[in-house]
Amino acid sequence: MLAWFRDLTAKERQTMFACFGGWSLDAFDVQMYSFVIPTVIAVWGLSRGEAGLIGTVTLLISSFGGWFSGTLADRYGRVRMLQITILWYSFFTFLCAFAQNFEQLFVLRALHGFGFGGEWAAGAVLMGEVIRDKYRGRAVGLVQTGWAVGWGASALVYTGVYAFMPEAIAWRVLFAIGLLPAFYVFWIRRHIEEPEIFKTHRQERPPVGISHLFSAFRGPYLWTTVKVALMVSGAQGGGYALSIWMPTYLRSVRGLSATGAGGFLLVQILGALIGFLIGSYLSDAIGRKWTFIVSTVGSLVFVLIFMFAPMSNEALFFLGIPLNIFLLMKFPPMGPFMSELYPTEVRGTGQGFCYNAGRAIGSFFPTMVGYVSEGMPLGMVIAVFSSLAFGVMILMLLMLPETRGRNLAEIGTEPASQPRAAAASSMTS
């Protein structure tokens, strides 16, 4: 199954490693907040709505970070923006350790979000342009497994810190450890270069200006951009409604301790890792769209079972594996899918906007779950909002084309939303 990996060039492998590390460390930092929600609620007397609002502002600001980072990546380079965004989110995660109240943590998590969103935009475009189309789906998908690795590392650190320190101190130590990803930038600076397609294109065209922010809304790209952004909104909204509130659900509804919840989450992260790997291979094997659809339908079914089926904590423990397999399968094809919809001159902006506009809209789901769950059972609210989000994703997918096999150098000679089958038919005739 990994024979294709040996066929990659040294540059392709190094780029994969750089983006894998950046994405893993991104997850390591961003998932920390989900673990400390019960603690900050208790220490500062916050409501669930206020705790959810902090999670939402992180995701909302990350959407602007991803949009701006994508545009700046089109102007200054994918690798340069990857380094800047890693430094940014590491620094502001560290500062969260010194927050003294809700307002300070709100602002610091918002600023953290700017780098968190920007890292994905720069890294996804970099991967899409360096990896050849034959292996693009599985390579970008394999990099996506870094999210499960970073999430798992964060859960392990959380479990260890909370096991040996009182909660009032442990959450601050957890955020302080978030500075470590900044040191990864030194390796990137020494080993990673800009993609050849980007360097060639930059020599042929003048640097982009501020108006480039809106280039994905022009001509044939407008409706593609709208539909992809809404599709990502469904994926992100359903995932956030579940993942951000899962530690709180396990502790407040299922009655688990902090370390017990950590054990549950580690098993779920194992499922997420398997889901990323399966999604990576299905993306090239059956196409981007069918991988999205299988993942979304499976997610919907297992969320309803997880929240409503009467079962013991032991049974729920194992059910977390298939739940997260289906939940995370949908993310590996996203980078290749969006890279294959836009030409080089707008790829960073289009991809950065769509993914992060989806993240912005999806970011409201944790807040809505928090506020609505103050008057309704938390599990029921999570299930309702997740189901709504997944329904939106399926609806948008029905209106989008399959992109598997597209050559990036040839994109731009036809409308971005034109399906491959139709394009091939017109060429044959």
Explain the overall architecture.
Helices cover 77% and strands 0% of the residues. The protein has helices at 3-6, 10-30, 32-44, 48-76, 78-95, 102-130, 136-164, 167-177, 185-191, 196-204, 222-243, 246-253, 258-285, 288-308, 313-329, 334-339, 344-362, 364-372, 378-397, 420-428. The model is unreliable at 413-429 (pLDDT under 50).
Evaluate the radius of gyration.
Answer: 21 Å
Low-confidence stretches: 413-429
Beta-strand fraction estimate:
under 5%
The main sheet comes to: none
* Helix-strand sequence: HHHHHHHHHHHHHHHHHHHH
Query: Any idea what the shape is?
Result: globular
Mean pLDDT: 82
* Annotation, overall tally of beta strands: 0
Structural class: mainly alpha
Distance between the termini: 38 Å
Secondary-structure map with pairings?
Layout: H1 3-6, H2 10-30, H3 32-44, H4 48-76, H5 78-95, H6 102-130, H7 136-164, H8 167-177, H9 185-191, H10 196-204, H11 222-243, H12 246-253, H13 258-285, H14 288-308, H15 313-329, H16 334-339, H17 344-362, H18 364-372, H19 378-397, H20 420-428
Which tags fit this structure?
mainly alpha, 429 residues, 77% helix, disordered C terminus
